[in-house]
Design goal:
6-stranded antiparallel sheet; 17% strand; 5 helices; alpha+beta; 180 residues; elongated; 6 strands; single chain
């Protein structure tokens, strides 16, 4: 009887542990570690703290900050966008340093850029595609000089219709929407 109790105790302890808000927050923060720059990393941490903020009844983190938290593992709950012209699959960059790493793919560059009154940009890339910065993005670009001086990488996100634009030497990645 005692051995049956011991076996049952071990079997129950081997099951998945239920994570509370603190554990969920710490797990989310650990997923932010691979982000390329300090500003994006900090915004990701704010987004990862959402379970604790909710448990304490605090106002939620900005949606753009919450979206920066990479998924723990791909699964059916998070659909990956089908590849578009000029957009690299984030999984193809896994060996290059993580979720938002720069791709080595197409060698895209900007061919033009402009800013609206709010400071959000629209860029035309060397492949002819046009991308607009999403209004919910909290990272502002500071492009100056010739557009062709900016190599870029596009990465898929788990957010339908949106991608990440990484501009070498800038604060990105930026959340963008394809215009054409």
């Amino acid at each position: 009887m005692r051995s049956l109790f011991t076996i049952l105790l071990f079997a129950l302890s081997a099951g998945p542990a239920l994570a509370g808000p603190r554990e969920e927050t710490l797990a989310g923060i650990s997923l932010c570690a691979g982000l390329p720059d300090d500003r994006t990393f900090l915004d990701c941490i704010y987004g990862a703290a959402q379970p604790m903020r909710a448990a304490l009844g605090l106002s939620p983190a900005l949606p753009a900050q919450q979206r920066l938290v990479p998924p723990a593992s791909p699964g059916p709950a998070r659909a990956v966008l089908p590849p578009q012209a000029g957009v690299q699959n984030a999984a193809s960059n896994a060996g290059d340093g993580g979720w938002f790493s720069k791709g080595s793919g197409a060698g895209l560059r900007m061919s033009a850029y402009s800013f609206d009154r709010r400071g959000l940009f629209t860029v035309t890339l060397s492949d002819g595609s046009v991308w607009r910065q999403d209004a919910s993005d909290t990272t502002f670009a500071h492009f100056s000089g010739q557009a062709s001086n900016y190599p870029v990488s596009l990465l898929e996100t788990t957010i339908p219709g949106k991608s990440r634009l990484d501009v070498r030497g800038e604060n990105g990645p930026y959340l963008v929407v394809r215009v054409r």
